[in-house]
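Quick one, tokens below. Sequence please?
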């Protein structure tokens, strides 16, 4: 399985977006995360439209992270954590263990 020069360039030299993120992180700037609307769209996309607004809000709340770099004064919705929460909910709904060692 090979890769072309552009793909290899992304592996060797991270894309510009990653460089911008790193410089913002090191400068102590707050990263915005995703919006509540974007998070709700992700929940609908992954779990369907049958969820109540209350349940969607609860999933989004579980995905909120406090940015400790600024004294804990800023929080944001983490897409990564949102997908983890969704994956755990899907596993429980399917009767699967969310912890691999317990399978």
């Amino acid at each position: 399985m090979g890769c072309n020069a552009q793909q290899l360039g992304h592996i060797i030299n991270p894309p510009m977006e990653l460089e911008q993120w790193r410089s913002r992180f090191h400068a102590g700037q707050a990263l915005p995360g995703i919006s509540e609307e974007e998070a709700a769209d992700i929940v609908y996309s992954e779990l369907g439209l049958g969820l109540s607004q209350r349940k969607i809000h609860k999933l989004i709340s579980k995905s909120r992270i406090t940015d400790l770099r600024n004294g804990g004064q800023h929080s944001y919705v983490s897409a990564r954590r949102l997908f983890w929460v969704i994956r755990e909910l899907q596993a429980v709904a399917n009767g699967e263990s969310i912890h691999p060692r317990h399978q």
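Residues 79-93 form the longest helix (15 residues). The radius of gyration is 18 Å.
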